[in-house]
Amino acid sequence: MVNIDENTSKRITSLRFLLMLFVMIKHNAIVKDLFMHEMPFSEPTAVTFIKEFFANGLGEIAVPVFFFFSGFLLASSDDSYFATLKKRFRSIFVPYTIWTVLYFIGWLVLKHFHFMYGNPLADWREWGAYEYLVRFAGYYHGYIFTFVGSFWFLRDLFILVLLSPIIYFFVKKIPLITLVLSGCAYFMLPSLIIILPISLFFFELGITCSVYKMDFFFFTDKFRCFELLLISVTSFLFFFKNRGYNQNGGIHHSIFFFLFIFSGILGLLKFSNIIIKNECAFSLAKNLAPYTFFAYAFHSPILLEIVKRITFRITAVQEYGGAFRSLVQFILACLLDIGLSLGVGILLSKICPPLFVLLSGGRRRK
Q1: Which of 141, 193, 212, 289 could form a Cys-Cys staple with 16, CB 3.0–4.6 A?
Q2: Cα–Cα distance between 149 and 151 in angstroms, integer?
Q3: How far is 301 from 313, CA to CA, in rounded Å?
């Protein structure tokens, strides 16, 4: 059982599906060097800025908040370590495995369809047991992302749950030093061999807030919206002007990027108070929350690639480029990807609730 007050519980619930929307929008934003090395069409800088605001802006804010909430809720629970492992095995590892197998089969079926951009199973007949294992875990030749790319989050979260007693020990004994070290790793290192630094830092920050009874929502409510908006927009403008990527498409961190991330997180936490005060808004957020995991798993990679290809053909953006076509393609791709993922989730939860629960890691529609 999780020991948190009603206000905190409602505010976390209010953000669950919204955070996933940000992630899905990020994945649909076609930005040079982010998921692809060359743009398939030309577009003005202003359009690139808009798309990067969602890809490297809202999308990058969502992931830290997910890890933060995960660490906070884990440390706030009365469950024993082994009881927690059992729950997380069902809610993370089982759906991780099922979806990975489903996508493996899906890529095999689509292997001969030429409208797809590429297929990760092009040489699958040459793989041995080791190749299958490292691709499943996401450590092939140092590449940190999993076979189902977006599942790196689940992989890291499960590893952090396994390591949680160690993290908890250091948070209790040397909290400041522990946060400083993980913060330095987040700022300076691309990976920590088995997990990404962003995962460790925000998961640990969530545990710290729980252990020391820090009311982070009360803290964020002290800021004014104008202050957070000014810091976020200004820092993102500087980041956009000097942005860069590493060879795997990750962002080269800068002080402006971190200012944007932290001010954005504070703004998002503050926004949750607005949601829960509006009865209709909170009701909608609460009803959509159970579909968060399913939408996350269903939207990428196959649906994402199909939607991308379809919207390219509808808008003819590859042939003609331009601001209007590029923006229409982006908006249309987001609407299709989100709409189909949510629609299939709702339909499945009504037609076959047990299957929906299994694919959602035990999460049930209320």
Answers
A1: 289
A2: 5
A3: 19
| Chain position carrying tokens 């993980």 | 182
Q: Give the span between the Cα atoms of 294 and 200, in whole angstroms.
A: 24
Contact of 156 with 195, CB cutoff 8 Å: yes
State how far the Cα of 187 lies from the Cα of 163, in Å rounded to an integer.
Answer: 21
Task: Give this prediction's pTM.
Answer: 0.89
Tell which residue, 243, 299, 250, 252, has the closest CA to residue 144: 250
Q: What angle do CA 180, 234, 44 make, to 5 degrees?
A: 120
Beta bridge mates, 34: 31
Contact at 8 Å (CB) between 272 and 14?
A: yes
Residue written as token pair 């990404």 = 196
- Of 49, 41, 43, the closest CA to residue 316 belongs to 41
- Residue 110 CA to residue 122 CA, distance in Å, equals 11
Please tell me the distance from the alpha carbon of residue 319 to that of residue 248, in angstroms, as a whole number: 27
Using only C-alpha atoms, the chain has a radius of gyration, in whole angstroms, of 20
